[in-house]
Design goal:
Blueprint lengths: L16 H4 L7 E10 L1 H7 L4 E10 L7 E5 L2 H6 L1 H9 L19 H9 L5 H6 L2 H4 L5 H50 L1
Antiparallel strand pairs: 1-2, 2-3
Length: 190
């Protein structure tokens, strides 16, 4: 009989936080403040006393059943730190990245309302929705293709704008150096 080798789990590679939360950029994340009733202080002072607490709402776009609504803690501050910091910098104004559904002229009013009802708030949310969630939306495949095409076109326009800005800066630099040379030549001629 052969001897059994025990399994050592200490050598197992732990899942990194980065890999674990790599899909977080596809989530709709909203920060807000709630007034929380402090029962102890209210009883002590004989009047209602409240304190403010930051909360986070996490929604999978298109899925009405997958929502987290909980007080902010260190875990969420680390996980969504950049978004949370931007929210705090805007003094608690709603902050999200992407093109709002309302600003995308391709959609009808009823399509915008339906998408918002399903917590699809940006064109990026629509482009990243799973096909399973898309089954809830009439004409989903066509809308998702339009969203993806819009995002690709936007990226191309952004790249073109960046290139144009670099060219313009180079032309201005060249024009300025040419003007400086002309000015220096005129001073030498005197």
């Amino acid at each position: 009989m052969s001897e059994l080798t025990p399994t050592v789990f200490d050598d197992a590679m732990p899942m990194t936080e980065q890999a674990r939360f790599q899909g977080d950029n596809k989530l709709f994340v909203q920060f807000y403040r709630r007034a929380i009733h402090n029962e102890f202080e209210s009883n002590k002072q004989g009047r209602p006393v409240y304190f403010e607490q930051d909360y986070i709402k996490i929604i999978v776009p298109g899925d009405k059943l997958s929502q987290i609504d909980t007080p902010m803690d260190d875990h969420y501050k680390q996980r969504f730190g950049e978004r949370y910091k931007k929210w705090l910098e805007t003094n608690g104004a709603d902050y999200f990245t992407g093109t709002p559904i309302d600003a995308w002229p391709v959609l009808t009013l009823s399509q915008k309302a339906e998408l918002k009802h399903l917590n699809i708030n940006t064109v990026e949310d629509l482009a990243n929705c799973s096909d399973q969630l898309g089954q809830k939306i009439m004409g989903f495949n066509a809308l998702q293709k339009k969203a993806k095409a819009f995002l690709i076109a936007s990226d191309e326009v952004a790249a073109e704008n960046e290139l144009n800005a670099k060219v313009e800066a180079a032309v201005l630099k060249h024009t300025a150096s040419k003007a400086d040379k002309t000015k220096a030549d005129s001073l030498l001629d005197k």
